[in-house]
Amino acid sequence: MHEPEPQADPGTHQGGHTMKQPRILVIDDDLALCEIVRTALELEGIEVDEAHHVIEADKILLERVPDAIVLDIGLPGIDGLFYCARLRENPATKRLPIIAISGSSNAREQAIGVGATTFVHKPFDPLELLALLDRLVGVTPLERAFGPNVSNETATEHAVALGRLIEAGRARHELADESYRQTLSAIATSLELRGLETGRHTERVAGYAMRLTVEVAPALTDDPSLEWGFMFHDVGNIGVPDRVLFKKGSLAGEEWALLKQHAAIGEQLLAQVPLLDGEGRRVVRSHHERWDGTGYPDGLAGEDIPLGARIFAVADALDAMTDRRGYRRQIRWDAALARIRNDAGSQFDPDVVDGLTACEPDLVEIRNRFAAEATAPTPARAEPEPRSRRARLLTPAPEL
């Protein structure tokens, strides 16, 4: 990307003075979101340039440099993380405010790490974006919304007061949303109390999977159902008889058939849950499919397997092999990675395995964080059930 030539800005004339109109470049492949952002910004007198992929953004930047950039992390082709780093290498955009947006909160650290000024989680209120632009480039939200007969001073006062009310309402909404998320997270984690997994597996494997998604397919993080699909991946175990789920030793043919039904049962259980409507539900159904077509429940192969499920299969296998289970010992982290690489092209999507290698340091950090939390002092609690009652792992790792 070449440095653009400086362009004259005609500005807006008011009372004999020239006022520069802010210009924002929005880079997002979601046409509906672009339209919402454009409408909100133009109502405030902000000029908006719109690009739906990196090539289009480069053409716009060659013509003129905006006052700020709103950049989606999940762009097709060249993803937003790579493009953000590239923008920081260009002298024309090196110091521009860049607001990164994504449906995954896990993308925040990566976005800031490659040079984004700040981060906004999708879906977001356009007023939240206006508030950020106020801080970054001096755009006052709602300053133009009170009609032509209101003085600038009064409009500004009204905007500040209304902004405070909006901020208070947003805070209450975020509190309610966080309570909802915590409730669902507690439900997902409670599956472990029935012996379905070892402690913190659900949250840890979801952390691995979300980071791997940012590496392999950042556009998927715009789907809010994805993370919940990772969390509820084995919810269908509720429909598996205890005589199968807790059986000691090998399963007979009929018992194994019953166990494999949990993926389809999980999808059915979540069919009426809007929060899981999307890639998340596809993860629940398809996370036991294999790249070579020998998995279940549908025997899908290759790219016919939903991408979120392919990503989760790798994350789940990594956690299964490196976590201590009642029926077998854990193996070293590097040995687990070697086994996953060996199964690329048979059990796992080779591209996802490549992504695992690329983001391994971050996955180690996630693992260490959970390990530190597990060893921290906690209040006394009831003794767990005997290990002999622990359920078998539902994602078979390679044989030891």
Question: In short, what is this structure?
Answer:
This protein is of the alpha/beta class and 400 residues long. The protein has helices at 31-43, 54-63, 80-89, 107-113, 126-137, 152-190, 201-216, 225-231, 242-245, 253-260, 262-269, 279-286, 307-322, 333-342, 350-358, 360-375; strands at 12-14, 17-19, 23-27, 47-51, 68-72, 98-102, 118-121.
Q: What is the number of domains?
A: 2
| Global shape | elongated
The third-level CATH topology of the largest domain is Hypothetical protein af1432
E-strand count = 7
Task: Please report which band the strand proportion falls in: under 5%, 5-15%, 15-25%, 25-35%, 35-45% or over 45%.
Answer: 5-15%
Helix content range: 40-55%
CATH H-level superfamily of the largest domain: Hypothetical protein af1432
Total number of helices: 16
Average of pLDDT:
78
**Which CATH C-level class of the largest domain is it?**
Mainly Alpha
Could you describe the largest sheet, including whether it forms a barrel? 5 strands, parallel
Strand order of the largest sheet: 4-3-5-6-7
Radius of gyration: 25 Å
